[in-house]
Structures are given as C-alpha cells and as structure tokens.
Sequence to fold (154 residues):
Amino acid sequence: MRKQDFLVSKVKKHDVIVARVISSPEPQVLKAIVVEILSTQKGIDLSALGREIDFVCSPGTWGDAQLSIGDEAIIFISLISNRLYEDAWRGHMLIEDIEGEKYAIYPHRELWLNEEIPSLIRENSKQDPKRPFATAIHFVAMEKYLKELIEIHG
Fold:
C-alpha cells in the first residue's frame, strides 16, 4: 500500500455517510438514520440527511463484523439496481466514544506504526481498547482525511 492509497478505492466506488443503525427490517437489511453525508455521487443525495434509509449490509465474515442495531458508523455505500448496498468487505468503521472523544475504529492493528499510512491518520491513531486487532482513529481526523480524498477522487 502506498500512502496515497489508504481508503481511496472505497471513496472512488462509494458515497460516504455517517449513520446510526436503528433496526433490521429483513435479513441482511439494516435501517439507519443518516447523521452526516460526506459525498453524494454514488446513490446518496442530500435529502437523506436526518432521514431513515434501508441498505443491504455487508454479510459479515471472519475479520469483518456486521453492523448491529445501535451502532453508529462511517459507511461506504452505493446504489446498485435501485437499492443501497454497503461495501461488501469492510464497508464501515464503527464510531465509538473513547475517554470522552469520538473515534473511528479501523480493523487493522497498529496503523500508527505503518509508514504507508498518511501522517494525518498515523498521528491521530491509537490502540482500540476493546479490540487488539483494531486501531482507533480520532473521528475529526478521519472525517478530514475522507473529505480530502472525496475532493480529489470522489
């Protein structure tokens, strides 16, 4: 991975939203309230802000946990055949409170040690206290990084 590659393919292929999961109306479908919209080129439009959306979620496999009711997350989502789909592999990053601050949870350990990860992310990362396999990235830094990627690639 090169520095400029971190999450680029996700941004190129998907819209990026922040949403809170509120229910699961049918198998593998989640209903969520859209809290923030970072991009609107792949199926999401600004009218979704503050509204409920249904989407087909990533099925969850070993190393890629499925979203659950109550989770808030950054979600990579796109419209396929008139239906919204979360990216099938690591299509979200949970947002969690750690010591009073919001963090995006990226399912890879010790990102701050990897020189191929952009410095904004490395400098704002730490060990996820709940998951030894994951990195907690300060939400404000992740949001800024994603917005920069969207401006260039979205």
Summary: The chain has a mean pLDDT of 94. Residues 68 and 139 are 20 Å apart (CA to CA).
